[in-house]
Prior knowledge:
Largest sheet: none
Number of strands: 0
Shape: globular
Number of domains: 1
Distance between the termini: 60 Å
Low-confidence stretches: 1-10
Oligomer: single chain
Order of helices and strands: HHHHHHH
Amino acid sequence: MATEGEDEGSGFAIHPMDQFVVKPLFGGDSVHWYTITNVTLWMALAVGAVALLLVVGTRRREMVPTRVQSVAELIYGFIHNMVEDVTGHEGVKYFPYILTLFLFILMANLLGLLPMSFATTSHVAVTVVLALAVFVAVTVLGFLRKGPGFLSMFWVSSAPLPLRPVLAVIEVISYFVRPVSHSIRLAGNILAGHAVIKVIAGFATLAIASPFVIGAVAAIYGLELLVACVQAYVFTILTCVYLRDALGEAHH
């Protein structure tokens, strides 16, 4: 194994995980719950990008829409249709929250692809808060609407009676695993993609490999653009599925 000095001397050192380090924005070494960090900055930029798209971009709402207005209307209609198709008419009242969730994740993913940026959704600490917010909101909504009857979703009445307790335990476990899978799926995909780009780009220091590296990075970067959009969609549609469980009927 090469030492740190040897890596620096050869000019070939790849540290793909350095890009995920949380750092205080205004200097210092320690990070507390109140510290403004690079994560704070790029999350604020994501919120600002959502505001620019939906507020500033659609302020005039012309009959012949501008490009920004067209994009905003396209996203608005796409998410609205998805919410209505998955959750039914009853779930449309929760559309503003789901649209905000989708746009925040999408903007955070896309901004994370900019050079020298920070991918906030690569951190489980960020995605688990989003997933827990959905989990708690759906659970509370389920109990508010159905009361103790919400628990009937764990009782598969169509199964043979001896199997129902076993299936109930499996259903309860899978329900509480939801925020874990919901958050790790998003963070894992974003983290893995950025790490791969950094590793491959590190080989650009080798002159003989540079042309191949540039082509590979361009291809993976294009793939990551797709992943950024797909992961925002997957997180959102799973939110709609969970919402449908709270609004719809239980197992029969």
